[in-house]
Amino acid sequence: MSGWVVIAGLGPGAEALVTPEVRDALAEATDVVGYIPYVARVAERPGLTLHPSDNRVEIDRSRHALEMAAEGKRVVVVSSGDPGVFAMAAAVFEAVEAGPPAWRDLDIRVLPGITAMLAAAARAGAPLGHDFCAINLSDNLKPWALIEKRLRLAVEADFAMAFYNPRSKSRPEGFEKTLDILKDACGDNRPMIFARAVSTADEVIRVVPLQETTPEMADMRTMVLVGSSSTRVIERAGAPIVYTPRSVPE
Amino acid sequence: MSGWVVIAGLGPGAEALVTPEVRDALAEATDVVGYIPYVARVAERPGLTLHPSDNRVEIDRSRHALEMAAEGKRVVVVSSGDPGVFAMAAAVFEAVEAGPPAWRDLDIRVLPGITAMLAAAARAGAPLGHDFCAINLSDNLKPWALIEKRLRLAVEADFAMAFYNPRSKSRPEGFEKTLDILKDACGDNRPMIFARAVSTADEVIRVVPLQETTPEMADMRTMVLVGSSSTRVIERAGAPIVYTPRSVPE
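Structure tokens for the assembled complex are given below, as produced in the milestone run.
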């Protein structure tokens, strides 16, 4: 039996958002590796070894997965959301490129998942219904100046925006700066969406006009969406609907 | 029994990429509306009426769905991919906003799906593993000048890019112009990915250096991805792996 690595997206949290393809891969696996809270979402069973590891050891975890596959094991690397969006797929391929040549011939597949921005958008309406961009606001792996440049160009392009990793305890100032940049560059009061723990029991969705936003509205479990200049809010008895029309007039 | 509207994403094509949540909604529906090829993916059964309709009648279709829900029916509006990404969710909310006030009180939910860009990215490796944008290249609903502006700003921001609806028989020139803009603005030979009919029996994935791309590499069933300046290609015996590293050095 030859080994493989599957890099699988578990979606934002709810079991009902895990694809059958991912469910099947987990059923065939001998080993599962990933960040502790994501591995905790995989049911234990005989013949399956779980290898939870801490945050910020993505390359070590990737090497471990590739080594096990080279030994003939069937390894699933689990990510939250989609593995290709600010998650484990890029880390595994970094490890492949830097590793022994034989790793390139391994059977490695990426199985997509429901990424947080699309789960959050669905809860709010259709804020990403027109052209949009996705930016990781963490400056752990890139200079802050690049984030600021991208924010200003995204506003100029009039993209709706989705922010991953908006704010953590160790870097609370980045999101404050982000809001200052947006308030200045947008110059309007377009809707922002703070979607915390989407599809879990802790889910909270807030729609807040840009000029009224404050940094503490986000934490590491929050997905933040920003409308474009044409994004609309439909008020009603329940939660408002936020959507970006499909068309932009001449 | 009170009616509802669910706007559901069927994913890119394979049944194994349809979420259980969407499967359950279809099982409870009395009526399904959508573009002909997407409705054709829903199995017929007693008690379910299928309402396939042609392309470019999204608002009529949305009104029909809302009218049926107001009459107490359980209506699923099906989209390919994710309904919030260049698909039916924005159209339904446009109809809600322009329609009778009572429509705002209907039970309307959006169920996310695997969108084409993430399915395509997964097949190629992790080309969207860093900041990226999604642009609909059709100028049916927006001026071409806006598309060109967004393309140039996206290159300046060094986003990876995903293009929906790159090319159709009725407007073959837009994608040719897009490639000319990219070749000029990028000034390098970064990888592009042409992913046709992802997850179906017709799937074809091609990785082509930007300067060697030609317009006929895309059609309306093709998802086109463009790397950022740091996107890498891992050559190997099989199909190459394309990925964008997670980090950008200072």
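The first strand of chain B starts at residue 4 and ends at 9. The domain at 4-114 of chain B is CATH 3.40.1010.10 (Cobalt-precorrin-4 Transmethylase; domain 1). Further analysis is deferred to the final report.
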